[in-house]
Every structure is written in structure tokens, then in C-alpha cells.
Amino acid sequence: MPQGSQQRVRRENNGAQQYSSKAIHRAGDELSFAPGVYEIAALAAGGAIALTDAVMAGTVRNGYGLVRPPGHHAERNEGMGFCVFNNVAVVS
Question: Which sequence positions are flagged as catalytic?
């Protein structure tokens, strides 16, 4: 993940919480997920950030971020469906 991306993803973490006694994590009221999912979702958001940074810096002319989970169900500040982060909100 590019430098600075981790802090950006943490800032937009949708209130993700861990309940260590059950190893269940939550991102808002609608989404609970298993251990490891947060890290995978953070990598996907980091990929979207890296792509956006490359386009904005002129390193590439355009791009298409094929990341999983895609983030299209999440709200700006709450995970929903299978999406922990809304990657569009993270990169904007």
C-alpha cells in the first residue's frame, strides 16, 4: 500500500470495531465480518488510492480499479452488504 494510504484508510474506517471475544468485527450497524476481512478491504482501498494518485500525478492517463471487495454497497461512513469501505468516498 502506498505511503500515506494506510492513514487515509484508517481515517475513513467507517467506525469498524472488533469484538475480540467473538472475533467478529463490525463496520456500522449493517455489516459484521470475520478476522482478516478488514485487512483485505484496506488493501483494496489502498489500491484505489494508488490508482487515483497515479492518474492525478499524470503517471498514467487513466485507469480502472478492479479491486475486491469493490466497496459499492458501503456508504461514506458505514459498511453495508459485503463492503467495509466505499472506495469512491475514500479516494475523493
Answer: 73
